[in-house]
Amino acid sequence: MPPTAQPSRLSHFLRGHLSEGAEVSPLTRRRATVSLVVAVLLVAFNLRIAVTSLGAMLDRLGSMGLSATTQGVLTSLPVLCFAAVGATAMIVTRRVGVDRGLEGALVLLAAGLVLRVVDGTPALIAGTLVACAGIALANVLIPAIVKEHFPTRVGAMTGAYSAVLSLGSAFGAALTVPIANATGSWRVGLGIWAALAVVAAVAWAPYCRGRNKQRSTARGTSMWRNPTAWAVTVLFGTQSLFAYVMMSWLPSVYVDAGFSDETAGLLLAVSILIGVPCFFIVPSIAGRMRHQGHLVAVLTSLTVLGWLGLWLAPAGGAWLWAALLGVGGSVFPVALSFFALRTTSSVDTAALSTMAQSIGYLLAASGPFVVGVLHHATGGWTLPCVLLAGLGVIQLGTGYLAGRPVRIGAH
């Protein structure tokens, strides 16, 4: 896009942060835009590491005396926090601005990652809560920042930050146990990720200098009685449940199938990494389709096959099931794209995003806990895998409803 065609809001943002009152040259604009993109992607890289790194260490923490109940709490805490904090995020950030709110989210994330390795189970739970509060705040703010600064490139930026988010998830899953082994300390394995959160906070800091004067007071369309809004919300909830069950328990499934902790973490990382290019490509495909329900159906079918495979042949088809779950997880960026595709204004987009993320994560919160309880009660993974495959049928149906070519707020 030529410089003169850049979004006016981004131009205003760059002028305010680079040189107050000065004209922005084309070269400066390009450099600043690249810097902004890099900062957004660094933030995205940090938004699941706290979850996948803990999932990779659960079996070791269990062998060190962490109770099954506490493990269940730790696996459900992230999505509960995403629901609770996500519901209030925009209210809180009206006082400080979206850009400063994101910086605060990164500070919370870094502090939580340090706190949870200080000492004992209470610190582990408290630190996980603080870190996930930071992630929850960022979850809501990132789409708003993309909408504000890249209004003509929402699909591309959504795909990019979703892919980088997935890449960060893979790093947490694959490297946490090897780092713990190499250093002889589980605390180092979990705590080292705070350094990346600090890097992201430093990268984002230049965009928090000016006071945010663009605080919207407009009231959008009510989502609570809209069937499409509820379909998007349930879809977001089911795909989130699949994602957090996978991040929390997939390594344990593979350990019980006979794999080492390192290989189990690697299998989770492979599952996530395979999804990275899909996360980047799928939103663009969805944007070109009139009815995205067909795309959701295909991806959901792959997820169902993955969980059925883990039930029937967890060891023999381990790598295949990991790959199917990875590709099937691409429902996530499709659900994110529905926030914009199903609405007619940025106000309604924000309203749908808030509803879907708060309620959707609340629906997803039960997943890791229920799967853990069923596993410990039955001593195996048959019932959890069958239950998850059945949930895929629900996701397929809501995906068709959410993917209909209708707009919320259209007159």
Strand and helix map with partners:
Elements: H1 8-18, H2 26-45, H3 49-63, H4 68-96, H5 98-115, H6 120-149, H7 154-183, H8 186-191, H9 194-204, H10 227-256, H11 261-288, H12 293-312, H13 318-328, H14 331-341, H15 346-378, H16 382-402
Report on this model:
- The protein is globular, with a radius of gyration of 21 Å.
- It has 411 residues and is mainly α.
- It has one domain: Up-down Bundle (Growth Hormone, Chain: A).
- 79% of the residues lie in helices and 0% in strands.
- It is built from 16 helices and no strands.
Percentage of residues in DSSP E strands: under 5%
> So what's the CATH class?
Mainly Alpha
* Tally of helical segments: 16
In one word, what is the shape? globular
Distance between the termini: 32 Å
Tell me which oligomeric state these chains represent: single chain
Order of helices and strands: HHHHHHHHHHHHHHHH
Q: And the CATH topology?
A: Growth Hormone, Chain: A
What is the structural class? mainly alpha
Helix content: over 70%
Mean pLDDT: 84
State the domain count: 1
For the secondary structure, the number of strands is 0
CATH superfamily: MFS general substrate transporter like domains
What Rg do the Cα atoms give? 21 Å
Under the CATH scheme, the architecture is Up-down Bundle
Largest sheet: none
**Low-confidence segments:** 1-9, 211-217
